[in-house]
Every structure is written in C-alpha cells, then in structure tokens.
Amino acid sequence: MRSHYCGQLNETLVDQTVTLCGWVHRRRDHGGVIFLDMRDRDGLAQVVVDPDTAAAFANADSARNEYVLRIVGRVRLRPEGTQNAKMPTGLIEVLASEVEVLNTAATPPFQLDEHGKVGEEVRLKHRYIDLRRPEMVDNLRLRSRITHSVRSFLEGQGFLDIETPVLTRATPEGARDYLVPSRTHPGSFFALPQSPQLFKQLLMVSGFDRYYQIAKCFRDEDLRADRQPEFTQIDLEASFVSEDDIMAISESMVRQLFREVLDVELPVFPRMAWDEAMNRYGSDKPDLRIPLMLTDVDDLMEKVDFKVFSAPANAEDGRVAALKVPNGAVLSRKEIDDYTKFVSIYGAKGLAWIKVNDRSKGLDGLQSPIVKFMKNVVEELLDRIGAEDGDLVFFGADKARIVNESLGALRVKLGEDLNLYTRDWAPLWVVDFPMFEDDGSARLQALHHPFTAPACDVETLKADPVAALSRAYDMVLNGTELGGGSIRIHDRAMQQTVLEVLGIGEQQAREKFGFLLDALQYGAPPHGGLAFGLDRLVMLMTGARSIREVIAFPKTQSAACLMTEAPSEVDAEQLKELNIRLRHKAKAESAGE
Fold this sequence. Notes:
This protein is of the alpha+beta class.
C-alpha cells in the first residue's frame, strides 16, 4: 500500500512520486492550502494539499489528528525560508495528488506532543496511543537493535538459542512465585520461572556447552522504577569455564553492543571486591561517575563523649562513617534538613554534619552542633577525611547495614543534585561476594542463589559458612546492576552442603531440587553463566527514567495492567474446573449472601 516510510523521504527523491501510509500528526489550514504532518514509525513528513485536486483536498479537509491516511504525491523541495533543519525530512515536502481516508479516529485521550500534561495512568490505560509517540518508537526500536546485536554476538561465539519451560515447579529462589493451578492435576500448581536457572544448568549437564536465551521471567515482589512482575533476561551459560571466561565474554558483548548501537566506546571495566564497594560506597553497585566516597572513622569515635557515635563504634555490627562533599559548605540548613529526611527513608535516625569554614581557626572555623562532643579527635578526624575549607562532611552512625544504605543513597542523591558526575559511562565488575548473608531471620540466606559455587571446599564451608566467599560476579554500569552471575555448583556433595547451610533439609531439598541433585551425579561439567536485565540495559541506553518506558505493555507499580484491566476475576465455571473455591466468596455463600 506504500512505497516509502515517512521518515525515509529526503532530497534524493525530489520529483519522484511516492505513496505514504500513516497517521495525521498535525493538520494546518493556511489560506486554503492544507498542510498535513504524516507520521509512521520512521518519522514525520509534511504533505501539502492544494484546492486544485478537489477530491484529495476534500478528504484532507475532513481529516483530523490520528486519522489513518494513504497519500500519493510528488516529492519536492520546500520553498526557501520554510525548511526545517530540526526535522530529518525538513528539506522536502510531498505535494499530494491523492488523499485516501483509510480510517477515522475518535479524539484521543491526550495529544501526543502534550503527553507530559497527563498522568502515567492515563498513558498506560491507552498504551496503544502512548506507543505512537516518537520517543516510545525510538525506545522500542533501540530495544530491537540491542537484542539483534546480542543474538549476533552470542551466536558468533558458539552459543545456541534454546528455550526453557515457562510452566515449571515452585523452587525457592529469593522471591515469591507466580502460581498457575493445574486442571489436570487437581490441587497441584505450576510456577512461572523466576529465571531459567535450573534448566540452563541441566542443559550444561546434557552437554550443550554454550546456551543463551532472551527469556521471560516472573517474580511476585514489591515493585519500583526498575522492577516489573514480568521482565526479560539475556541469559547465558557455558561449560568448562572460569569466572574470567564468563566475564570476558559478557564484557565483550556489552562493549560491542554500545559500539554498534550508541557509537560509544566504553572505558575499561575495573574489578572491585564486594567488601571494598560496601566500605567505600555503601553499595554493591556503586556509581563510579560520582567521586564521593565513605571514610571509616569508627576507631576515632570509640571514646568520644557522644553516644550517638561511640555506641555504634563499639558495637560488633555497628559502623561510623563520614561522607565528604567538596565545596558543600554552601548548602543551606534547609537543604541539610531535607537530606536528613531523605536518609530517614533508609532507617537512619539522623544525619550529623560539620561545615569546614576555616580550618586555620581550629574549632572556631567549624560550624556544627556535634563538634563540642569530639574536641580531642576533630583535627585527626578532618585529616583522615581530607576535609578542606569550604567542605561539608556528613556522618552516619548506626548498624553497618543502615549506615551503608543511607550514606550510599545520600552519595547518589548528592551526585545528582549537585551534578558531580565526572564521566558519561562508568562500568564495573563487583567480585568476591559473601556466600551467605544474615538478614536477622532464623537461618542464613544465599546472597545470590543456592546454586552459586563457594570459593572453598566442603569442609571449610561447613566449618565457617559466614566467612565463605562465593564465585559470583556482578556487572554494574552507572550505579545500576546490569547483570549478575556465578560459577555454579557442579558437585552433588557441595550442593547438598550449601542447602544444609541454608537450612534446607534432605527431604525439602528432595522435594524442591530432586531433579537437579539427580542430574549432578551423572557427570555434570564445571559451568557458569550470567543473566543481564534487558529492560534495565535498554533503560540506561535510552536515558529513560523507568523500565516502563522501554517495555511495550508494562504493569503499574501495583502489578496491574490498566489497559487490559488485569489481573481480573474469572467466572465460577473456570474456578470449578480448576477445583478452586475462593475463601471470601465461600464465606459470603455460608452467610446466605
């Protein structure tokens, strides 16, 4: 029905007849001549309709925004003074000889160029309209280019694209499962996969050696800007590899991706141990574009006459840390109070601070409500922090977890508020993660997942599991975790030991992971892999603020689809087929309602 996309037109087509199909983006009537900005997925083209072509003019006159038209016309240069250098097609226009209305359109719920004036709920309710916006088209086009680049790279490295099941069994992998009732097995449920983890390991046992998949994953967890209940992973796994092998393959893939799609040459990917990341940045995914760092000052605070500092400094799980903000003394008291409220989100009870106005004046050159409590250590404190005149120093004092989370988040917020970024892209590998974490519950939790190999033998792991490190690695970019992976456990005895440390007994292990444990005894090769969050990767590469802007049909933060009104109730007959009875309806029936 068409010869060209609107965005493909340029001056090389002058005097040629073209046929366009698309939507009316804007209609203007200038002294009896009608101008139509026609839009399709490739861009905009200006169409001119003269009264001389009566039938075409009548149809153009009846057209309104979002009408679907087919245009036949001759490409010509725009008259001098009317060219638009901001448009890719701004040098030419199409003089229409035919205008056909393929479909009319009701008045849309919002104008595409005024989407910012309506709430996100309105845009998600009418997502098919929202997706017509050029910004959304660009986002999804770039997403397509990313997946194409990934597939080309991995297939060039000998990886096979293999699909794994979507209906599987529930396994504890760190988040709640989405469950699917089985009609043919009454009382039993499938689970949607949180990841293809177990199946890709089984593929390694099967001898496929190199696997990849762009896989849908599902997790029933609390949402935020970079989380969705269903999301997409770039998943890869390989046999007979070390950590360095997987990291080299993954890094090369991301480098090629940025080079091909954004024409960006990423800098060297440094490696940082998890301990160092937490101590210096308060985060295991630090944004290295921001030059601010945390400084430990526990030893200086152990004997100060200020229990807010001395108590956590002497506690086994406590920490006192400082965050220097160069030239930060210009911040007002109101701004400091606002930052105090901000860190309270992360459990901090307050935010102590010192403004360094003039160090040559000693205590008189410092402005702070806490200096009087630490007169004997303040000079040594400022020397350690490297504080100079004009600097502002923030302090966190509490349990180490709270200090890390609050000062780590404050560091990122200060970087954004004060525009402290030193470069555009800052990639990083975080390595040497702890094998387990103590979240205060009755038993240890796997920091990654139960199939991550520890960096020690079985006896060492049994003797001191808390001290064990894992063979895991995370790729971080600009403070966002792009992907995480590990060398997996390929030995059945080690896998059983890890499950025991996690408090998963033999019977429960058999119920949850019996098929994996069985497979590990039949010649499982050493193997490892990594999974990238495709949505997060696209979000970073497009500069979007949320992954909802790079997913065609996303859910809201309450895990609902406003467009389809999912999740929804189902009729009683469907529930009966599944042998399910809803508790609230059963109560209503028993009450005679």
